[in-house]
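Q: what does this look like with adenosine-5'-triphosphate bound?
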Amino acid sequence: MILETTDLSVARGGVTVLAGLGFAVGAGQALVLRGPNGSGKTTLLRTLAGLQPPVAGRVMLSPDAVAYAAHADGLKSTLTVAENLAFWASIYGGPPPERAIAALDLAGLIRRRAGELSAGQKRRLGLARLLVTGRPLWLLDEPTVSLDVASVALFAAVVREHLRQGGAAVIATHVDLGLPEARILDLDPYRTRVLARDGFDEAFA
Ligand SMILES: Nc1ncnc2c1ncn2[C@@H]1O[C@H](COP(=O)(O)OP(=O)(O)OP(=O)(O)O)[C@@H](O)[C@H]1O
């Protein structure tokens, strides 16, 4: 398994928002987190990413495995698209940016400063960053916000290729990503859930 949680409880602002979560995500698997606003998707992703501690339970993963893409794109606005990707590739020691540029259709934008991109273009650059990290576990918070239909399809293809190469992804989203192979975890803010590993398939819709 690339990621496994047992009896995990997570909190935001001192309030426990999810409890008793047990799930596993292996190589080649994607898990989609669904739930209404405030149900705890971001809080769960932040906890998985190690940005905040769990209230209870365990998260088992290698910290070196994780690439986290949050609401904020984390772009360096004065650097160009090419410079941003080269910067991240050097930080993470991942592959050179050519594939990421092609996969997110950024070739026509490589000399533009990140600060001068449209919202959707910035989002595509933020997603291209995932590819140059070379990391196997992608934790993605609303990755398709600002993306047009064609870019959502590009993104889905990128995730599918990542899974095919043995990667994994946990994706919080309100939209249909066009990833029928992904399992769904519906987060219910009004009751806690206990998802036994043995009951994994039953627990996921
Ligand atoms: N900075 C914060 N301080 C205190 N409470 C917070 C903070 N951010 C979120 N919360 C609360 O924590 C709970 C879970 O929020 P979270 O952002 O994890 O939900 P979400 O499912 O990601 O929502 P959305 O779909 O709106 O992005 C909500 O009740 C929210 O009001």
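DSSP finds six helices and eight strands in the chain. The beta strands are 3-12, 15-25, 30-34, 56-60, 66-69, 137-141, 168-172, 183-186.
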